[in-house]
Design goal:
Double Stranded RNA Binding Domain, 8-stranded antiparallel β-barrel
Length: 382
């Protein structure tokens, strides 16, 4: 460092000469002491400046360029994170090395430059970081760690332990027990007004009105003739009570040949009965019917009249009587049109055995139990 030498004024010719002796010696010694003091102050000035630089502190600068203003943290947040990592404060501005960090970029292309200038007068160190993350958080975290290491290379940068949990508040003191309330005498019951009558139940659906149904039925009989036989029937039902239906009708089973084709048998009968309905509404009727069937069974012999082999002994039809019972279902489909189906079990009261005189087997004999299955289509009149 250059020292400024004060200018000296020329001595006038008419000035009195310096005196010799002790006075001149004192002035020379004072001049030498003043010069030595100035040299010492100049030599000690850099050492004092170096002693004022705190290596544990830092002057941290964080700059966000275009593209990083909204994505990257602010300078105060970075300084707070560095302090948290180092577990101490950074110190005031100008007390330590200067660290300048500049971050810029966009999602997928981030870059940061960290310039560190120490207190020892060494050339500044520059570090560059790049990252391809979609957010600024990874490169900001890396820059924060580099700044902390630049301040204290031996620092423990692990996550600091969590703060101890605050002591739980003591439970509130128990409330004093309330004083027993005075027992008041029971209030007098109100005047016994008559109770309101219970609400009336909703009216039940009225039963369907009386109706008359007529239907044509097709049926199949088993056991009434020598083989399963088709037949037809005409039925009429009159519903006059909510659960009762009067049933009547007629059936016809055309002649059906026996095993011996010389003989054929058929039945014509009518019935009268009643049905007990388990379900009866305007659209559905389901019940069990019982009826008494009465008519005639007739036999036909197919022979050549010129040369007969079999001559009937008692020609003509024979009366036939049977009891029948079974379920019946009727459903109205459209308007008055209805369909019905059912099964009947028949027990003939008159069972005939048609035989040829001699020891030949019987041509036909009705079994003790027979059955029919029927289905029909009809209309209902109300």
């Amino acid at each position: 460092m250059a020292r400024r030498v004060p200018r000296t004024r020329p001595i006038a010719h008419n000035a009195p000469p310096l005196r010799g002796g002790a006075g001149a010696l004192v002035s020379a010694r004072a001049a030498r002491a003043l010069g030595a003091g100035l040299c010492a102050s100049v030599a000690l000035a850099p050492a004092a400046a170096r002693a004022a630089c705190d290596g544990g502190a830092a002057d941290v600068s964080w700059v966000r360029l275009e593209g990083a203003e909204a994505q990257c943290p602010a300078a105060a947040q970075v300084r707070a994170e560095v302090s948290r990592r180092l577990r101490r404060e950074l110190g005031a501005t100008g007390e330590g090395p200067s660290i300048e960090a500049v971050v810029q970029g966009r999602p997928g292309a981030w870059s940061a430059q960290i310039r560190t200038e120490g207190c020892d007068g060494a050339p500044p160190a520059v570090r560059k970081l790049t990252d391809s993350a979609m957010t600024c958080e990874p490169i900001a975290t890396a820059a924060t760690l580099l700044i902390a290491l630049a301040i204290d290379p031996e620092a423990d940068l692990s996550e600091p332990p969590p703060a101890p949990a605050a002591d739980p508040e003591p439970p509130p003191p128990p409330r004093p027990a309330p004083a027993p309330a005075a027992i008041s005498p029971p209030a007098e019951p109100p005047f016994p007004w008559p109770a309101e009558p219970p609400p009336r139940p909703p009216p039940a659906e009225p039963p369907p009105p009386p109706s008359l149904s007529v239907a044509w039925r097709g049926l199949a009989a088993l056991g009434l003739l020598p083989a399963p036989a088709p037949g037809a029937a005409l039925s009429a039902e009159w519903s006059f009570l909510p659960r009762w239906t009067l049933s009547t009708g007629a059936l016809w089973l055309p002649e059906l040949r026996a095993d011996d084709p010389t003989f054929a048998f058929g039945i014509t009968a009518g019935w009268l009965g009643a049905c007990v309905e388990a379900i009866r509404s305007r659209a559905v009727a389901l019940g069990v019917c019982g009826r008494l069937v009465a008519g005639s069974i007739h036999a036909v012999i197919f022979e050549d009249l010129d040369e007969p082999r079999v001559v009937p002994t008692t020609p003509g039809a024979r009366p036939w009587l049977s009891a029948a019972a079974g379920p019946r279902l009727a459903v109205r489909v459209v308007g008055p049109l209805r369909i019905e189906a059912g099964v009947d079990l028949l027990v003939p009261a008159t069972r005939y055995s048609f035989r040829v005189q001699g020891d030949l087997p019987a041509a036909f004999e009705q079994p003790a139990v027979a059955g029919t299955v029927f289905g029909g289509l009809g209309v209902t009149f109300r």
